[in-house]
From TrEMBL:
Keywords of the record: DNA-binding, Repressor, Transcription, Transcription regulation
Keyword Nucleotide-binding in record: no
Organism of this sequence: Planobispora siamensis
Chain intervals for the UniProt region annotation (Disordered): 154-180
Entry GO MF terms: DNA-binding transcription factor activity; transcription cis-regulatory region binding
GO biological process, one term: negative regulation of DNA-templated transcription
Name of the protein in question: TetR family transcriptional regulator
Residue ranges occupied by any HTH tetR-type domain in the UniProt entry: 9-69
Superkingdom, natural source: Bacteria
């Protein structure tokens, strides 16, 4: 008889990964602490050791996971802004199940730090009113991804599906969605340049 493998230790990262799998595959409303415990093969109460505020802390952690992106500064503020927007779109599209949290939760922790970093990079690159620009670009990305996910039919998938939604291609979305996103981003950057 083969030796029994020791259980993988429970960690915050494992909890978030399992929660993302459930939310992306079945929708956020199906993500319960009991279902999460079952997926992790632990009692639901064990999760509270890593997330003492329970479901509230889990929702905050999921929102932070998809909004705490990083991008290297470019040669101009436009290139830097474009890199941030593309990175944000990719992170949000990877986990459509928690898009609602990204839309409604106030940025905290690493997500708030990422927004400060983006603002500083744009200001250092010469963009006036960088904080206002970051808010506008963030709203654009969130809205664009929400429309893209809605048009994909992801929300209409049966609840029983255990397969997470994945973007149509590894490089991004469909060619039409990519073109729409870039066209809108060009318009946003052009508008910010005239302020």
């Amino acid at each position: 008889m083969p030796a029994k493998r020791p259980p993988i230790p429970l960690s915050r990262e494992r909890i978030i990964e399992a929660a993302l799998h459930i939310a992306d595959g079945q929708g956020l409303r199906r993500l319960t602490m009991r279902r999460l415990g079952d997926a992790l093969q632990v009692e639901a109460m064990a999760i509270y050791h890593h997330l003492p505020r329970g479901k509230d802390a889990l929702m905050d952690a999921l929102a932070e996971h998809v909004t705490a992106v990083h991008a290297e500064p470019g040669d101009s503020w436009q290139e830097t802004a474009r890199a941030w927007c593309r990175a944000s779109r990719a992170a949000l599209r990877e986990h459509p199940g928690v898009l609602a949290l990204a839309l409604t939760k106030q940025p905290k922790g690493r997500a708030a730090a990422a927004l400060r970093e983006q603002t500083e990079q744009l200001a250092e690159a010469g963009l006036a009113d960088a904080a206002e620009a970051v808010r506008a670009l963030r709203a654009y990305v969130l809205g664009a991804v929400a429309v893209e996910v809605q048009q994909s039919g992801w929300a209409d998938a049966p609840d029983e599906s255990d397969e997470p939604w994945r973007p149509p291609s590894q490089g991004g979305g469909s060619p039409a969605a990519d073109a729409d996103f870039e066209r809108g981003l060009d318009a946003m950057l052009a508008g910010l340049a005239t302020r």
